[in-house]
Amino acid sequence: MKIACGTDIIEINRIKKAIEKAGDKFVNTIYTEKEINYCESHDVNKYQHYAARFAAKEAVYKALNKTSNIGRIDWKNFEIINNIYGKPDVKIMDNSIESIDISISHCKEYAVANVVILYKE
Question: Is 3.90.470.20 the CATH classification of the domain at 2-119?
Fold first, then answer.
Protein backbone atom coordinates (compact mmCIF):
# COMPACT_ATOMS: atom_id res chain seq x y z
CA MET A 1 0.00 0.00 0.00
CA LYS A 2 1.29 3.46 -0.91
CA ILE A 3 0.33 6.47 1.14
CA ALA A 4 1.23 10.05 0.22
CA CYS A 5 0.56 13.23 2.12
CA GLY A 6 0.79 16.92 1.38
CA THR A 7 0.23 20.08 3.37
CA ASP A 8 0.22 23.79 2.62
CA ILE A 9 -0.37 27.08 4.40
CA ILE A 10 -0.89 30.43 2.68
CA GLU A 11 -1.49 34.00 3.70
CA ILE A 12 -4.96 35.05 2.63
CA ASN A 13 -3.72 38.53 1.76
CA ARG A 14 -1.26 37.02 -0.75
CA ILE A 15 -4.13 35.40 -2.68
CA LYS A 16 -6.22 38.57 -2.41
CA LYS A 17 -3.39 40.63 -3.92
CA ALA A 18 -2.85 38.10 -6.72
CA ILE A 19 -6.55 38.18 -7.61
CA GLU A 20 -6.72 41.97 -7.44
CA LYS A 21 -3.60 42.32 -9.62
CA ALA A 22 -4.21 39.59 -12.24
CA GLY A 23 -7.98 39.22 -11.88
CA ASP A 24 -9.64 36.60 -14.06
CA LYS A 25 -6.34 35.41 -15.50
CA PHE A 26 -5.14 34.20 -12.09
CA VAL A 27 -8.52 32.86 -11.01
CA ASN A 28 -9.18 30.99 -14.27
CA THR A 29 -5.68 29.46 -14.29
CA ILE A 30 -5.96 28.01 -10.79
CA TYR A 31 -9.62 27.30 -10.12
CA THR A 32 -12.37 25.35 -11.85
CA GLU A 33 -15.76 26.92 -12.53
CA LYS A 34 -17.30 25.15 -9.53
CA GLU A 35 -14.50 26.35 -7.25
CA ILE A 36 -14.90 29.93 -8.49
CA ASN A 37 -18.68 29.84 -7.96
CA TYR A 38 -18.19 28.46 -4.44
CA CYS A 39 -15.65 31.15 -3.47
CA GLU A 40 -17.61 34.00 -5.06
CA SER A 41 -20.75 32.93 -3.17
CA HIS A 42 -19.04 33.96 0.08
CA ASP A 43 -18.92 37.68 -0.83
CA VAL A 44 -16.96 39.39 1.98
CA ASN A 45 -15.05 36.23 2.91
CA LYS A 46 -14.37 35.07 -0.65
CA TYR A 47 -10.60 35.57 -0.33
CA GLN A 48 -10.49 33.20 2.64
CA HIS A 49 -12.18 30.57 0.50
CA TYR A 50 -9.95 31.21 -2.51
CA ALA A 51 -6.90 30.91 -0.24
CA ALA A 52 -8.21 27.74 1.38
CA ARG A 53 -8.84 26.17 -2.05
CA PHE A 54 -5.36 27.27 -3.14
CA ALA A 55 -3.76 25.66 -0.08
CA ALA A 56 -5.81 22.51 -0.73
CA LYS A 57 -4.68 22.36 -4.36
CA GLU A 58 -1.06 22.83 -3.29
CA ALA A 59 -1.39 20.05 -0.70
CA VAL A 60 -2.93 17.71 -3.30
CA TYR A 61 -0.25 18.66 -5.81
CA LYS A 62 2.50 17.83 -3.31
CA ALA A 63 0.98 14.44 -2.53
CA LEU A 64 0.34 13.61 -6.21
CA ASN A 65 3.84 14.58 -7.24
CA LYS A 66 5.26 11.80 -5.09
CA THR A 67 3.71 8.74 -6.71
CA SER A 68 0.85 9.57 -9.07
CA ASN A 69 0.26 8.13 -12.51
CA ILE A 70 -1.65 11.24 -13.58
CA GLY A 71 1.25 12.58 -15.65
CA ARG A 72 1.69 16.33 -15.92
CA ILE A 73 -0.30 17.84 -13.10
CA ASP A 74 -2.28 20.95 -13.95
CA TRP A 75 -4.22 23.08 -11.47
CA LYS A 76 -7.45 21.96 -13.12
CA ASN A 77 -6.64 18.21 -13.18
CA PHE A 78 -8.45 18.07 -9.86
CA GLU A 79 -11.13 20.02 -8.07
CA ILE A 80 -11.76 20.87 -4.43
CA ILE A 81 -15.49 20.58 -3.80
CA ASN A 82 -17.71 20.12 -0.78
CA ASN A 83 -19.78 16.98 -0.40
CA ILE A 84 -23.46 17.11 0.54
CA TYR A 85 -22.49 17.48 4.22
CA GLY A 86 -20.17 20.42 3.56
CA LYS A 87 -16.94 18.43 4.04
CA PRO A 88 -14.20 19.27 1.53
CA ASP A 89 -13.46 16.55 -1.00
CA VAL A 90 -11.14 16.12 -3.96
CA LYS A 91 -12.54 15.23 -7.36
CA ILE A 92 -9.81 13.71 -9.53
CA MET A 93 -9.55 11.31 -12.43
CA ASP A 94 -6.72 8.97 -11.47
CA ASN A 95 -7.54 5.26 -11.32
CA SER A 96 -4.43 4.53 -9.23
CA ILE A 97 -5.98 6.35 -6.25
CA GLU A 98 -8.13 4.38 -3.84
CA SER A 99 -9.11 7.27 -1.59
CA ILE A 100 -8.24 10.85 -0.67
CA ASP A 101 -8.86 12.53 2.66
CA ILE A 102 -8.53 16.30 2.89
CA SER A 103 -8.87 18.84 5.66
CA ILE A 104 -9.04 22.60 5.08
CA SER A 105 -9.13 25.42 7.61
CA HIS A 106 -8.83 29.19 7.52
CA CYS A 107 -8.92 32.18 9.81
CA LYS A 108 -8.58 35.90 9.21
CA GLU A 109 -4.95 35.75 8.03
CA TYR A 110 -4.11 32.18 6.97
CA ALA A 111 -5.52 29.17 5.17
CA VAL A 112 -4.15 25.66 5.62
CA ALA A 113 -4.84 22.28 4.05
CA ASN A 114 -3.67 18.74 4.62
CA VAL A 115 -4.26 15.77 2.33
CA VAL A 116 -3.60 12.04 2.57
CA ILE A 117 -3.83 9.85 -0.53
CA LEU A 118 -4.13 6.09 -0.40
CA TYR A 119 -3.05 4.39 -3.62
CA LYS A 120 -4.27 1.03 -4.86
CA GLU A 121 -1.86 -1.89 -4.67
Answer: yes
pTM of the predicted protein model: 0.90
Nearest CA-CA partner of 75 in 46, 45, 55, 100 = 55
Of 2, 16, 46, 62, the active-site residue reads 62
Q: Which amino acid is at 8?
A: D
42 is catalytic: no
Active site residue 49: no
Tell me the angle at which helices 12-22 and 46-67 cross, rounded to the nearest 10 degrees: 100
pLDDT tens digits along 48-75: 999 999 999 999 999 887 655 555 678 8
Q: Is 55 left (phi over 0), alpha (psi -120 to 50) or beta?
A: alpha
